[in-house]
Amino acid sequence: MVETPPIRESSRRGLEDPAQRIEDFKAAVSLFTTRPEVDAGRIGLLGICASGGYSLAATGGDHRVKAVAAVCTAEPARQFRYGADGTQDPAVFQGLLDAHRRATGPAEIHWIEGASHVDLYDKREYIHLAVGKLTDFFAVTLDK
To answer: Which contacts of 122-126 are long-range, i.e. CB under 8 A and separated by 24 or more positions?
Structure first.
């Protein structure tokens, strides 16, 4: 695990800027490729909640990222339009995943039956299923 640099200070608290968040992911990948303890051929990203959507969008054209996973992904544009009611359109995530697949290779969606967005934050029975799937996914995709 690479220790990340300190979070930059900002007077823009509470700002949710999807374009900037996507650029943050790209900048993180650029930083990791310069670190001697990082195997640049085995970079993977994990995004949780809105970062899940951002990580998929950021890696759609970035061949440096070999694997990306998203957990309880939220699509902020939908939430801005309709409110955070916990529902998501699977087609939106399939489109982002397809873009990533075209750039880097195999991809899949794994739904955990019965789990809501928030359940994946704090219900052990669902968290264990997600962590198990993520562990297997990264082991297979980054060991190629």
So the answer is: none
Gap between the Cα atoms of 44 and 46, Å rounded = 7
- What's the CATH number of domain 18-142, 1.20.210.10, 3.30.930.10, 3.40.50.1820, 3.30.450.20? 3.40.50.1820
**Residue 51 amino acid letter:** S
Number of residues written out for the chain: 144
Distance (Å, whole) CA 69 – CA 107: 9
N- to C-terminal Cα separation, the chain? 19
Instruction: Split the chain (144 residues) into runs of 10 and give each run's mean pLDDT.
Output: 58 72 92 95 88 83 85 70 64 72 70 85 92 92 82
d(CA 46, CA 134): 9
Residue spans of the domains in the chain: they are: 18-142
Task: Give residue for tokens 């759609």.
Answer: 60
